[in-house]
Each structure stands twice: as structure tokens, then as C-alpha cells.
Design goal:
By secondary structure, this protein is mostly helical. The chain has two domains: about 1-85, no CATH class; about 165-270, Structural maintenance of chromosome 1. Chain E (Arc Repressor Mutant, subunit A), CATH 1.10.10.580. It is built from twelve helices and three strands; from the N terminus they run H-H-H-H-H-H-H-H-H-E-H-H-E-E-H. It has helices spanning about 1-30, 40-50, 55-85, 90-100, 105-115, 125-140, 140-145, 160-165, 175-190, 200, 205-220, 260-270, and strands at about 195, 225-230, 235-240. Helix 2 runs antiparallel to helix 3 (about 55-85). The termini are far apart.
Amino acid sequence: MGAEKEGGKDIRKAREDLQRIIDLCRSIELKGLDPYLVEVDDLIKVIKDHFPAWRKPEDLCLDTEALNHIASVVRMQGEWVKRRATTLYRDPFMIEEKIRSLPIDRLVEIFLEAWRPIVELEQLTLKGFNEALKYWGDLPPISERWQKTGYTKVDTKPVTKEEVIREGLLSSEPFIAELEKMWLELKDAASKDGRVNYWDFITSDTYEKTARRAYLASFLITYGYARLEIHPLEEKIFISPNEEPTQLKESEFISFPITISFEEWKRWREKRGA
């Protein structure tokens, strides 16, 4: 009798453990808390330790329900990582790892580039006073400064499509045709793993052509011809072509700005040895 009573206590405690696991996972799901607050391995170990004790169907159902809620938390963890990766979220751990991997010389260079003194001494000197007097003395009278600005009337005339194309304001081929042409180019440029470095793909021999290619690449991604792959820790961006245009759901759209400055284009050209 004592052994049965003791066994009953073990069964009751095991049921309470499973119910606590269910309540914990359910609170994570309903309240939208950080899913990584839960140590999944520990919960699985508890279920595994108690499983041999189950004899009744209701206990097995409780065991299955606990596993189902743990699976929901694992799914939330995967979505959490995917969401942070697509929005270039900089996790403190990633930043720490990035800093630790940099050599001391590079850290000093970054510090000097970002350092801005916050102390400034302002004092009116004799030289500054003379420059101010000269500035105000050289200004024309207010009556002359407030005169109306004259203008010249010119006749306007329409421009032809050929002139607009010659100025680079319009392409000589339809937009969709130009887009599909670039899509085929992306397919040819993709490596065996089905992707190509974003900057390698858009960089051209002139800055204007590079900006145009970046503009078209954004539409390739928006219209489902290609997809963007972002690696924030390595600071790399890849673009991969889709076999067929894929219509994205509204929930899958993300906004990710990429600066195409003249300095960045020049730096990438030099890196490629062009």
C-alpha cells in the first residue's frame, strides 16, 4: 500500500509538471512574449523522464498536448529569427561578436572616424570683429536688397521622345521588356548556389548605369522575379533569381533601403579592379 501511495504521488507530480509546461507555453503564445525565454531542451527532458509512467489514455493525451505546445514555441522561435534577419536587426550578441573579431588597428580607425569632440570654445576676437564689420559694411542698402527680382520670359516647346531618350530620362525599350532582360541576365550570372553578390550584379562602368541597374533590381524583387538574401553579421547582400515570377503576399513585403552613393560605387569599382 505504501508503494502504491508513493507511486500515486509520483504520477500526480508528473501530471502537474506537464500542466505547468502547457501553461508556460500557452502564456508565451497568447501574450506574444520572447519565445527564447523558454528552455525547450529542459521541457523535452521533463516529458521524456515522465513518459514511462503513463498508463492511462488521459495521461498520454496530456503528454501529447504538452509536446504540441512546445512545438508551437519552437515555431515561434524560428519566426522570431527569420523576422530579425530580414529586417537587419542587430542583436547585441552579434554586435559583440563583430567587435571581438575586429583587429585593434581597425577598432582604433573606427573610433577616430566616429569620434566627435563635445567641447568647444567660443570667443569674439579682434579679427572676427573686423570681419563682421567688413561684412555689414559691404552689404548694399535694404532698399536695394528688397528690390523685385527680374525674370525673362521664354517660349516653351515640346520635346520629342528621341530627345528624352538621348538625355537619359527615358529608356529606348519598354520597362517590362527591360526588366525581363535583366532577369535573364541575373539567371546567367547566378552561381551554382543560385545567387550572386548584389553589388557585383548592379555595378556597371558608370555611376548612372549602376543607379539604373539598382532601380531595376528593386522592381525585380518587388514583382517576384528575384529575392534578396541579407547576412547582417558578414555585411553581405545576395540577390537570387526565381525560376518564375512569384507573387508575394502582403505580409511578406519588407522595406530594406540600400544606399547607392557615388563613393560606394567608386569603392566597389576599385575593389573589383575595374
